[in-house]
Amino acid sequence: MRAALILALMALSAAPAPAQDATSLALTARFGLFKVAEITLDARESDGAYALQARAVGAGLVAAFRDVHFDLNTEGERYHDDWLPRRFVGDTDTGRRQVRVSMRWPQGIPVIDAISPDEPVTEWSLDPALQGDALDPLTAFWRLLRPRPRGELCGWSVDLYDGRRRARLVLHPGQGDPGVMTCGGAYQRIGGYSARELDERGPSSPFSLTFHPRTPDHWYLTEAVVVTRQGRVRVLSTE
After folding, report:
1. Pairing of strands 175-177, 218-228
2. At 9, which helix (H) or strand (E)?
3. How far apart, in whole angstroms, are the C-alpha atoms of residue 24 and residue 34?
4. Is residue 142 packed enough to be buried (19+ CB in 10 Å), middle (13-18) or exposed (0-12)?
5. Long-range interactions of 140-144: CB distance < 8 A, separation 24+
6. Maximum C-alpha span of the chain
């Protein structure tokens, strides 16, 4: 199971910011009949700033055999639909890959302050100085999952960079009726992956997101379906 993609699609929560808008969500991931992860989401935003903190942990059999978790923190500035990360700290363990990273964005260009474990420079390694047009993973996924008006749910894309790898979240035009909207999409692996990793995982992983409205301007994620080579993982809102 591609734990990195699955938990990334789920893992978001927030830390205090000078914002007054707050969002709280709770999600559970299931593989067939089995619960594989539990997630809590909280976010606070203002017109000019945001701060996010993420926590997702494995559950059920996943927790019994692997210490799968995500602890992510980021903060930055937001101007309408332009998101400018300033600081990102991540501690990720997918069961197969562990990464700890601290990055900041002086003048909008990512600078890696610390990253472990050490990896040798290879022909597929990325130069952080060339990734200024990509967001950190937490900001990118918050853009994907945050409650928003119906017209902003589908039909856009965003790139993300985690200190080693670059990927793209693509949302296709949506389908639905006045009470539901579903967006198909894909997690596309752009750079920083070896040929072996791309052969194992594939160049992209499809997913779909389903939203329902609580108010006309606030459509909330109620279900995400991630297609892996092992099968379909459903991420459900438990609120």
Report:
1. unpaired
2. helix 3-10
3. 24
4. buried
5. 140/169, 141/8, 141/9, 141/11, 141/12, 141/169, 142/12, 142/43, 142/50, 142/52, 143/83, 144/9, 144/169, 144/171, 144/209
6. 52
Query: What's the token pair of residue 207?
Result: 């997913």
Question: pLDDT 10s digit of each residue in the chain, 239 long?
Answer: 444 444 445 433 333 333 347 776 666 777 777 777 777 777 888 878 998 888 877 765 554 445 677 888 999 998 878 899 999 999 988 777 788 999 999 999 999 999 999 889 999 999 999 999 999 999 998 888 888 999 999 999 999 999 999 999 999 999 888 899 999 999 999 999 999 989 888 899 999 999 999 998 999 888 889 887 777 878 777 66
- Show the tokens assigned to 124: 């597929």
